[in-house]
Amino acid sequence: MTTSPRVLDPRAVELLRTARDWRLVGLLFERPHGIWLSEITDLALGCDDADLARAAASARDADEGDYLALLGPAGTVSPREAGYRKTTDPARLLAEIQAYYEAFAFHPEAEDPPDHVAVEAGFLGWLCLKQAYALVDGGSEALSVTADAAQSFVAEHLACVAHGIEHRLASHEESYLLHAARALIARVGPLPKVLEGDWVPSGLEHSHCSVTCGLNGGADKQAVGEGDEIPPEFRFGLPASDC
Predict the structure, then answer these.
(1) Could you tell me which residues come within 8 angstroms of residue 47 by beta carbon, excluding any fewer than 6 positions away?
(2) CA pair distance 191, 206, nearest whole angstrom
(3) What does pTM read for this prediction?
(4) Strand residue runs (E) in the chain
(5) What separation in angstroms does the CA of 143 have from each of 3, 36, 100, 106?
(6) In 3-state terms, what secondary structure has residue 83?
(7) Cβ atoms within 10 Å, residue 123
(8) 32 phi and psi angles, rounded to 5 deg
(9) Distance in angstroms (rounded) separating the CA atoms of residues 4 and 97
(10) Any idea where the domains of the chain sit in the sequence?
């Protein structure tokens, strides 16, 4: 007796494609080494995101030294979320991110720290895989919980590092990393209004500096929305305040 092959829910198929793209984004921000380029080439097959496909194609010329000069430990562009926070306790930030990973059994085999953009993007891909599985398995509650977690993780964490990286890379020569950053920005959307917590670094306690420290007008304010608060770490190019 033969049985008809099971047809995947179209939504699950789309989630699998999205998971592939997230993995590609994350891989592009990893240090080029080993079979890195081969993996990128394979994942880019069928990719219909123009910036992401262009980044994958440009990665053929990637050089480990150039990558480290930009995103390495002493590079000019921090690939870590902590590098774009001014009034968020770094230890608490890492604990929050790790709590997300543990809640969804995400244990990446990566050389990068938990708040590295490559790891955070990989986590979004993992959540897409979990959503696809929930759809196939009929787990509506698991689907809802995972979808909500993906949305909150982007707003609370990934959007911050994505916008910071894209802004800093824009001042450098165009590269596959800039195309990857633009593809990432398209996925995370606009910068959230509120990013910081209530922690004030030592030395600023008596300067009345808080989550609104250094707010100012200008192009950055327009990017987020008229009247919105601009977190201090995204006051790119604005004059220093008295805070």
Answers:
(1) 20, 21, 24, 53, 56
(2) 29
(3) 0.81
(4) none
(5) 28, 31, 16, 16
(6) helix
(7) 24
(8) -65, 120
(9) 43
(10) 10-189, 195-243
Amino acid identity, position 91: A
Q: Give tens-digit pLDDT for 138-192.
A: 878 889 999 999 999 999 999 999 999 999 999 998 999 999 999 999 999 998 8
CA angle in degrees (0–180, nearest 5) for 188-82-29:
55
d(CA 145, CA 158): 18
Residues 130, 133, 137, 138: what is their CA dihedral angle, to the nearest 10 degrees? 60
* Number of Cβ within a 10 Å radius of residue 180: 29
Taken in order 219, 224, 227, 229, is the CA torsion positive or negative?
A: negative
Q: How far is CA 185 from CA 101, 112, 161, 179, 218, in A?
A: 22, 21, 10, 10, 21
Q: Give domain 10-189's CATH superfamily.
A: TorD-like (1.10.3480.10)
